[in-house]
Amino acid sequence: MNEHLDRCDLCGGELGPGTTTLEIWRGEDLIIIRDVPADVCEQCGEAYISANISEKLDQFLSEYHRHRPERYLAVPQYSAVQAIGG
Fold it and tell me: Quick one: which of 52, 50, 47 has its CA closest to 16?
């Protein structure tokens, strides 16, 4: 872990090894990647991904359609009008 990343930028909490889940939109596709290694704030949960992991994720995202997903999820979608009125 880099010295400048020992503390969370948001709350100042200590960072420790952990994992995070990413939700990434690619056009109309929502891609969820679980268990991504990251330094995670022990206080607020903010996650910091290393440059090495980020490069690997970029490579995967450039060809994700070639891989079979671990599973498919049904996700409900609502409009802002439904959620907050119009």
Answer: 47
